[in-house]
Specification:
Organism: Prunella himalayana
Radius of gyration: 52 Å
Distance between the termini: 79 Å
Keywords: Coiled coil
InterPro entries: EPSTI1
Structural class: mainly alpha
Shape: rod-shaped
Protein name: ESIP1 protein
């Protein structure tokens, strides 16, 4: 039995030697793409660097946009606070003007009351002809002229106060319009800057795809 098994093994080894495949001969040919390995690695490195740059640029644009939005919000809050302060100041000035006007009216009333007391017993009609005007007639004329001058002076002061209040109100309204236009212009400029940055990123991305994927240029 051992001899039979040994003979079979020898026959198997002999068969393997006789049927061993010979050498393979292939015609040399170029494999792979049209670019060399160095060029491929260089392109891969360039794409990697460009991707890092785009991510960095996108982070910077995000930080800038966030900072601009925060600054715009701060400016808006400051403008609101300034407008409130100006309105409060105008209100205080108006109250002060009203107080002064009330004081002037009160002073005018007291002055008129004093002059009316001085006029008691003096002539009141211009039709009364006095051939030889005495001290009482002269005093009445002086008090009447004094009263008239006081009235004119008080009326002039009141008119000046009204004009000053009107000018301040017009100046405040003009200033508020200018600030509103400035805020609107700043918001429009910021929106335009953000839109331009987005379009620039989109254009750069499109140009990059056209460079490294020319088959998609159509």
């Amino acid at each position: 039995t051992c001899s039979v098994a040994k003979k079979e093994l020898d026959d198997l080894e002999q068969w393997k030697k006789e049927h061993r495949p010979g050498p393979i001969t292939l015609v040399p040919q170029r494999l792979g793409g049209n670019e060399s390995e160095a060029q491929v690695r260089q392109n891969q490195q360039m794409i990697l660097m460009q991707s890092k740059y785009q991510k960095k640029h996108k982070r910077e644009e995000y930080v800038k946009a966030k900072k601009a939005a925060e600054e715009a919000e701060i400016l808006k809050k400051k403008a609101i606070q300034r407008e409130k302060a100006e309105r409060l100041e105008v209100k205080k000035r108006q109250e002060e003007m009203q107080r002064r006007e009330m004081l002037l009216k009160d002073q005018k009333y007291k002055t008129n009351e004093l002059l009316n007391r001085l006029d008691v017993g003096l002539p009141k009609s211009d039709s009364c002809q006095i051939a030889n005007p005495g001290p009482e007639s002269t005093a009445w004329k002086r008090s009447h002229a004094y009263k008239q001058a006081l009235r004119e002076d008080e009326n002039r002061r009141l008119e000046e106060m009204r004009q000053e209040q009107r000018r301040k109100a017009e100046l405040l309204e003009f200033k508020q319009k200018q600030e509103e236009e400035t805020r609107t212009r700043a918001l429009k400029d910021e929106q335009r800057r953000v839109n331009n940055a987005f379009l620039d990123r989109l254009q750069n991305k499109t140009q990059t795809n056209n460079i490294y994927h020319p088959e998609y240029t159509g």
